[in-house]
Design brief:
Layout (H helix, E strand, L loop, with lengths): L1 H23 L7 E5 L6 H15 L7 E5 L6 H8 L7 E6 L1 H8 L11 E8 L2 E6 L7 H10 L5 E4 L5 H13 L4 E4 L3 H9 L5 E4 L1 H9 L3 E7 L26 E6 L5 H14 L3 H9 L3 E5 L1 H22 L6
Parallel strand pairs: 1-2, 1-3, 6-7, 6-8
Antiparallel strand pairs: 3-10, 4-10, 4-11, 5-8, 5-9
């Protein structure tokens, strides 16, 4: 009899514990604020807004997502804003590789990704090397050969010295013994305008940004910075296929959270973005914008960030860019 009472008590206790755990599982109860480092219309802003729309369309999220634009400092302002939301399960941040690169070279960038909580990797963003349609360069080799013949005379438009544009330039220069100028612009529109206006000869650009200009017959793509040819550019070689076997650090687009993020909230968002990347809406988005789906959870994202930082350190050091961390 005592044994039966004991078993019954244990069962009740276990049931109560299970019920408590079930009740403790996180579910958002108010609008989720998503911090991005670009102004409205920038790449991360557009992705965050697209994700919000897809989550609503697929009925995966019980609340709204609101995008908060925190431009400035190549991600430093947004990283600081996210860090201030310590432990807040209703705040997320959408990042690119610039959040890794900037703290390595800028002492003003006080917050690194090591201070934040990795949630999920969403995409690898390919890029293409483009010239004007009337350019004499028909292949990337043509451009490289011209750069060898006229060191420092050719020009490439791009962002900051730590941007992917410049990292790819530095990598190609080191591999080929060439040299050409890098002209930095604040925004993507200015970079593209410089190329279309003939003020520079080449640029590294995202496929979706280049697409309209290519269809209009204004740009020609020389090579792709991708693992394999993109569906929209089946006849354009990748860097390796073009004869340039160089290590191109990937541009990731991922989700992070504030420091001290609750574990149940982390599990919820990992599952949420895993479900999203399996939907028809997400697959269409990836195809339409010539992206590479690369979903992974928190642990794998942390490993990717570590590896990208390691690669960037080596590339910056080889290029003579001063590191502050």
């Amino acid at each position: 009899m005592n044994f039966s009472r004991t078993i019954c008590a244990v069962a009740i206790t276990a049931l109560a514990s299970f019920s408590g755990l079930a009740q403790a599982q996180f579910k958002p109860t108010k609008t989720i604020e998503v911090i991005v480092h670009t102004a409205p219309g920038g790449g991360n802003d557009l992705l965050a807004r697209a994700v919000a729309q897809m989550l609503e369309k697929e009925k995966l999220l019980p609340v709204r997502m609101q995008v908060l634009n925190k431009p400035g400092g190549n991600g430093a302002v947004a990283a600081a804003a996210l860090s201030e939301k310590k432990g807040d399960p209703h705040t997320l941040g959408f990042i690119t590789s610039v959040w890794i690169a900037n703290p390595l070279t800028t002492s003003e960038a006080k917050i690194t990704l090591a201070d934040l909580t990795p949630v999920a990797n969403l995409l690898r963003e390919p890029a293409v090397i483009a010239v004007r349609a009337d350019s004499p360069f028909k292949t990337l080799k043509d451009f490289i050969d011209a750069a060898k013949a006229k060191p420092g005379e050719l020009r490439q438009s791009g962002g900051s010295v730590t941007s992917r544009d410049n990292i790819i330039r530095q990598t190609l220069q080191q591999a080929t013994g060439t040299r050409w100028a890098f002209v930095s612009f604040q925004g993507g529109g200015e970079r593209l305008a410089a190329l279309l206006g003939g003020h520079v000869e080449m640029m590294v650009i995202e496929p979706q940004e280049a697409g309209e200009q290519i269809r209009a017959g204004k740009l020609r793509v020389l090579a792709q910075i991708a693992e394999k040819p993109l569906p929209g550019y089946p006849t354009v070689p990748t860097l390796k296929q073009a004869g340039f076997d160089v290590n191109a650090t990937p541009q990731i687009r991922a989700v992070v959270a504030p420091p001290e993020f609750p574990k149940d909230a982390l599990a919820y968002y990992e599952d949420l973005f895993n479900k999203l990347h399996q939907t028809a809406s997400w697959k269409k988005y990836v195809e339409d914008y010539q992206l590479e789906d690369s979903y992974s959870g928190s642990a794998e994202l942390a490993k990717s960030i570590t590896q990208i930082e390691k690669d960037m350190r080596a590339q910056f050091q080889q290029s003579g860019i001063k590191l502050v961390r």
